[in-house]
């Protein structure tokens, strides 16, 4: 009988800025959380992103017809005013279960703990517009 709870194996940003420089207003930041075994979510799990010192919540993207899966994808749509010159941050234990859970096929509850994710300047966010209307 399986009594081993699933754990977070990796957390990584899988998207790229559409213009190749920085995420802009309306761009979608996608983050993949991979587990040690297949899980199914319940409730409304979210992933906290640090964008310029402001906490933003990425929401779970559902996959139709797929109950158990090795990884979950969370997405955040960049909003006006978001800015992060050194890259989006994902702090340790940023996976929030929100009165829900993540369970393996045997019903074992996954722990939402994970390490800090070091991202880089290739995931900067800049929604400012120059005075003449052209983005920097």
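Q: What amino acid sequence fits the structure above?
A:
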């Amino acid at each position: 009988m399986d009594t081993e709870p699933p754990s977070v194996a990796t957390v990584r940003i899988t998207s790229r800025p559409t213009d190749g420089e920085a995420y802009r207003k309306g761009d979608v930041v996608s983050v993949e959380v991979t587990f040690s075994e297949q899980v199914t979510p319940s409730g409304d799990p979210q992933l906290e992103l640090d964008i310029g010192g402001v906490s933003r919540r990425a929401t779970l993207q559902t996959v139709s017809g797929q109950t158990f899966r090795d990884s979950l994808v969370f997405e955040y749509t960049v909003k006006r005013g978001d800015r992060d010159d050194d890259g989006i941050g994902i702090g340790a234990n940023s996976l929030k279960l929100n009165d829900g859970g993540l369970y393996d096929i045997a019903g074992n509850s996954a722990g939402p703990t994970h390490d800090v994710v070091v991202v880089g300047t290739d995931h900067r966010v800049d929604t400012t517009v120059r005075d003449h209307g052209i983005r920097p």
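Q: And what stands out in the fold?
A: Strands lie at 8-13, 28-42, 46-51, 54-61, 69-77, 83-84, 95-96, 101-103, 125-126.
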